[in-house]
Protein: Deoxyribodipyrimidine photo-lyase
Organism: Zymobacter palmae
Amino acid sequence: DRQLVWFRSDLRIEDHRALAHARRRGPVIAVVIRSQKQWASHDRGPNWFDFWQRGVAALAQSLNVLNIPLIMLDIDHFADIPSKLISFAQRNECGTIHFNDEYGLDERRRDQGVVQQARRHNLTVERHTDHVLFRPGDLLTGKGEYYSVYTPFYKAWLRNLTADQLHQDDAPQAQTPIAGISTTLLDDMPAAAEHIMRQWPAGEAAAQDRLAHFLTRRVQHYAEQRDFPAVDGTSQLSPHLALGMISIRQALNAAASMNEGRLGDGHQGITTWINELVWREFYQHILVAAPRVSMHQPFKENTRHLKWLNERTHFKAWCEGRTGYPLVDAAMRQLTATGWMHNRLRMLTATFLSKHLLTDWRWGEAFFMNHLLDGELGANNGGWQWAASTGTDSAPYFRVFNPVTQSERFDKNGDFIAQWVPELASVPAKQRHFPDAATRSRCGYPAPIVDHKAARLRAIEAFKALPSDD
Ligand code: FAD
């Protein structure tokens, strides 16, 4: 019996739960669905489209070696997927549809629709847990609730993890070619800039190269260097992880193998990195625990009432990297130029927008999504809500990063600023963090759009005015 494997954010053949399982059952036909309008409504932009498209092309090549045809369907809206996917399966004589679960609300509704319609047409759907080690709902507190604080989640994750969950499936063996169906892709989407494609090669091989490079060269110093944006101290694997060009098990097992198989103790660089991978999983669980976060609602419900200022000129200055705070501006320019931003700077720029500019975090969330190659609802929404103090385990609202001291601490020599704010490159390093008025006017660098102290107080007052959590 033919099996249909639907690839989504899991663009690989190695250690792919749905593919491995389906192939054991019979010959496989693969499908991938392009939903441009739906994705645009999720704020996805050209960098992500392009990375996805290149990832699909790489996947098609790998599948080709296995004689598995990959067909791309163009279905703009998720709502239309169930009926079209079912007719595709029927036309191609596939009795079972396999896929790996995704956890955003729209994705879950879409998949539920597929399950319901398949039942009506006597097709079987097999869903697999692949993106995370624990299926959301399988790791709960003693009270049977989802964790809303990270550290106990992390501890429970470590404590309950079994070898089975970490087991990796090999890519399947090649099958006998299926007559009458061949790979068909559509590749007419807007491409990213040439330098972005060079910096971010897509596909499984590229992801494995990155992982190997990180583990041999960087992880040793990860714990000390991960907070310094001028240093290439992190893995830069987020785009590949977000689209599943590498599996979470591959990442965890490779890291653990350099640490005598341990995940939670031992080498500090490795355990710190693994801890970040568990944050990724935490936010996937939150998507299911609190569906409201997929609907533009804050996790902390009382923060719905926050009086945002939403000053458009301020938002525009933030987007364009012209706030007058050099590290914030450097970060925003890195994002728009490369499609990626360092984690320390995501926290800083998100705090700056939501606190200093008292601008609705959802504006920033959407702007990030529109530019990031690694844009991913769980992590992006989780990160934004953390920074805006509206989320799980958030920064307390009265803790507002000082963008100048952050700069002095994390970009001590002003190297990152010099790279991304060239106007200030010739200013002595010490003054680069917050140049005086004369220097600004000489260099053509803008005056600060808000005063840190006043803006901080204004934000704290706005939060104080909220009704208490009930
Ligand atoms: P590394 O430091 O090498 O970490 C390894 C992996 O762990 C990452 O690739 C990522 O998959 C995961 N990870 C690390 N930190 C986090 C975190 N805080 N939350 C969830 N997962 C994490 N990450 C995304 O993948 N997509 C997003 O859209 C995204 N948006 C963010 C928005 C804000 C406001 C903030 C504060 C953080 C966001 N992050 C997002 C998390 C984090 O900044 C990036 O994952 C990280 O910077 C990617 O770089 P890296 O691959 O070199 O990370």
